[in-house]
Amino acid sequence: MLKDPLAWLSVLFLVYLSVQYLNSGRIQAFDFSLNKYVYSLPPAPFLPWSVIPAEALEMINWFAPSLTLFLILRYTWSILQPQILIWIVCLNGFLNALLAFVHVNLGWVYMYNFKRFGKDVYGSFGYPNHGALFFILLFAIALGLLIRELLSESSERDIPSISFAMIWTPVFFLAANLSTSRAGILGSWLVLFFSLISIVLIAWPRVHPVQRVYGFVSLIVLLGFLIGGFLLFTQPIHIAELKKATVDLNIYEEIDGRFFQVVSAWHMWLDYPLFGVGGWGYRYFVSEYIPQEQWGRLGVGKANVHNDFMQFLVEFGLIGFTLFISVIAPMLLRIVRNFFKKPYDDQSVWANPLRISVFWGLVILLLDSQFDIPLRSPAIMIHAVFMLYLLEGHPEYQTVWSPKVDWKRLQPPLVGMKNRIWGVQPENTDTSL
User: Fold this and answer.
1) Residue 167 CB neighbours (<10 A)
2) CA geometry: angle at 210 spanning 202 and 228, to 5°?
3) CA torsion, ordered 173, 175, 177, 178, to nearest 10 deg
4) To the nearest 10°, the Cα dihedral for 42, 44, 47, 48?
5) What is the pLDDT of residues 158-215, one digit of tens each?
6) Is the separation of the CB atoms in 113 and 164 below 8 Å?
7) 419 has which bridge partners?
């Protein structure tokens, strides 16, 4: 570990955030020469700084657990049992979903610690959009686990996993849809759609025609169950949000309502390029970067850039942002490389249904982070780290696909076949896909 550059980069990033915290405490005062309010200089102007100490400390509270988990999994992933970890993660999410259902159906405004929070509380989240993305990620994991077990040979099927997954999958799907978040409602359907389409396209040329019939029936049953649950439990407000995210979507209005903040953050970063404005610092300087007549567009929610990576850049500066990106860049590059590998390669993103579904869950998270603030939730960050490792190769989750099979030319008896889940690997195969 002492020779691992990623470990040192993680430590340096946390040290950087700590310096921002220790060098914080800027006070707002009126400058008569400028005829406006300004912030006092930080204790050490030549070092990274923040405005409010408590808010700078919050950055450490967010990133320290995620980076710790990242390093733990980095050194132990090959010897861990992902299935057990999935059970733990999904069980925790299941209990959170039950609390969210209580909030929706009973109008409860309390957190799990019985402290009053407000009408927007959803599960253990004070911001429904965070709850929505959290349940989308869990839905992606549960859906992938369910399909993987359904496609397994009956002798290799794990009964506890498939039993749990049959409960978790619809629960997480409904939890995302009941959040009143347009991103949550649309995102859950996109994860479902792209995951199923990807699996069908990969499985179709590899499975026996009889298995195609079984798969099609299973697909219809799964879709019917999820659609039925959506129609049964959703309320008019959820249908209205789904329509706003699809048929009534005004793309210009959605982009315009957020892009002005990205522009203001960019100009702010140009003024503070190296160290940024500190954790949560964007909110204290944004009024200087938009015309006064547009101040009305800023509210409680607009205290954030609504683009996670731009907000990290403007608040951590080029130095802090580079340290953070450098930690995760090698893994992201491996995922890009594995994206282009054939499905029957054990390292491929498409190697089994679990990886496929997890991949699409992370894609939705990445897209949402361009218009909202999902990565400003430590729960989402921690689960995203875990899902990144689920995309890594592991002996317990190898590929389930064979190369393509020409079933018309293949005549019994099948010679030289190697059994694989939902497919075979005969001697004479077409490996173009």
Assistant:
1) 13
2) 70
3) 160
4) -20
5) 888 999 999 999 999 999 988 878 888 889 999 999 999 999 898 887 777 777 787 7
6) no
7) 424
